[in-house]
Amino acid sequence: MASHSKYQFIVLGDTNPHIREIKLIFLERVKDLGINIANIAFIDRNNFEQYKGNSPTVCLYFGNSIKQEDLSELNFLLTEAVFILPVVESLNTFNNAIPLLIRGINGFELANQGNIEALVGRIMEALSLLRLSRRLFISYRRIESRSVAIQLYEHLDASGFDVFLDTHSIRPGEPFQEELWHRLVDTDIVVLLHTPGFLGSEWTREELAKASAMSIGILQLIWPGHTIDDMSSLCFPKYLKDSDFVAGNYTSANTSMTDDVISAITSDVEALRARSLAARQDNIIKEFMSAALAYGFSPVLQPEKFITLHKKSGEEVSVIPTVGVPHAFTYNQSEELVKKIRESKSTAVYIVYDHRNIREKWQAHLAWLDVYLPVKAVKVTDLDTLFNSF
Predict the structure, then answer these.
(1) Shared-domain flag, residues 12 and 97
(2) Same structural domain for residues 270 and 375?
(3) Per-residue b/e over 258-274, b at no fewer than 16 CB within 10 Å?
(4) pLDDT of 326
(5) Strand order in 7-13's β-sheet?
(6) In this structure, what CATH number is given to the domain that contains residue 269?
């Protein structure tokens, strides 16, 4: 197999006071995913000759006043089909801050430090280190926090998340509880509104239990004066204060949070997302590796987080541990992963996923696809059958 390509992070344009913090947070998120930071290459105009084609690359162009120094590099990166993200302090000044040749690209507004986590998330998506879907589940008790749940839904939806809220996200005619569990399986983060009576509901207790069992990252927003116990390792508490609510009111049916705390919650969600996805993938990897060893195979975990092993016949196969619901078999939406598998000697590719709580109609759809696609989906509970076939 070819040597591992580096992930290239290019910075061009004006000097920006946030660049150092952006890089530090990016490296933290990379480490959360278990990726060696030695595989990250930072490039700017001073070492641009180090750029290597055919490696996962993202370029941030910081615009303030249009300069000519980086135009040749920008034009080259465009011909290389590199992902370029224009970054400005305000989108209102976009045309005056960004060169014409990249003005047609949708820009990112970095107004303050509060936007850095979202920017880092976009960088990681562009490098295929995070899946492009940004699914989020709001868990709450209607009689206590419905107005805040709707407020969060609207803000997080506007921030680019695919937000599940029971009153807004289940279409008429769908089986309510079945669809709710299905969406929980496929979420990246749960935002849990932990009001004093949250655990008084059977359904909210079950949502918390299922999310914890699946190692989904849970951001618990804990109401003022309320305390909680027995939080899982992937449960992050955020204790709210009276001042986090408009007029200090957090008990009425129409209560709402301040803009500042809503922005802080969005940043917390971005920070937790990579850790949550990495933990879930690691769980599936460990389950597969343990089962393979028990059957006498010698699985090898590759740096891109797919697994290779040899059948008794000597043939090599690749296994992709998949978080959530498999969608369209996009190899976990990672171009680097696709490339590495194609470079390997594998004769077959399997996607391993946890089917528990996934709707039966979707499992039937995956079984139908298995008939027509070279990539086969395998439930994590069917590993015995898979290994016996090897």
Answers:
(1) yes
(2) no
(3) eeebbbebbbbbbbbbb
(4) 66
(5) 40-43, 7-13, 57-62, 83-88, 108-109
(6) 3.40.50.10140
Instruction: Give domain status of residue 290, yes or no.
Output: no
pLDDT less than 70: residues of the chain: 1-5, 65-67, 168-177, 229-234, 325-340, 342, 357-363, 365-374
Q: How far apart are CA 338 and CA 334, in angstroms?
A: 6
Whether 28 and 97 share a structural domain: yes
The stretches of the chain forming alpha helices (DSSP H) are 19-32, 71-79, 94-97, 116-126, 142-158, 166-169, 176-185, 202-213, 259-294, 335-343, 360-372, 383-389
Stated length of the chain: 390
- Give pLDDT, residue 227: 78
Is the same domain home to 86 and 140? no
Residue 362, pLDDT score: 66
> Which domain range does residue 89 map to?
7-126
Q: What is the pLDDT of residue 361?
A: 64
C-alpha to C-alpha distance for 212 and 235, rounded to whole angstroms: 8
Rg of the chain taking only CA atoms, in angstroms: 23
86-141 pLDDT per residue, tens: 999 999 999 989 999 999 999 999 988 888 999 999 999 888 787 777 889 998 88
The predicted pLDDT at position 352 comes to: 86
pTM comes to: 0.73
Tell me what pLDDT residue 233 has. Answer: 52
- The answer to whether residues 44 and 149 belong to one domain is no
Which tokens hold the place of 291? 């089962």
The CATH number that applies at residue 52 is 3.40.50.360
Q: Which of 219, 248, 276 finishes a domain?
A: 276
Residues 225 and 265 grouped into a single domain:
yes
Please indicate, yes or no, whether residues 147 and 258 belong to a single structural domain of this protein.
yes
Domain count, the chain: 3
Q: In sequence order, what are the residues at sequence separation of 6 or more whose Cβ sits closer than 8 angstroms to the Cβ of residue 3? A: none
Q: Is residue 340 located within the same domain as residue 238?
A: no
Residue among 55, 105, 95, 53 nearest 76 (CA): 53
Sheet of strand 189-194: strand arrangement: 162-164, 135-139, 189-194, 217-222, 235-239
For 201, counting Cβ atoms within 10 Å of its Cβ (0-12 exposed, 13-18 middle, 19+ buried), the class is middle
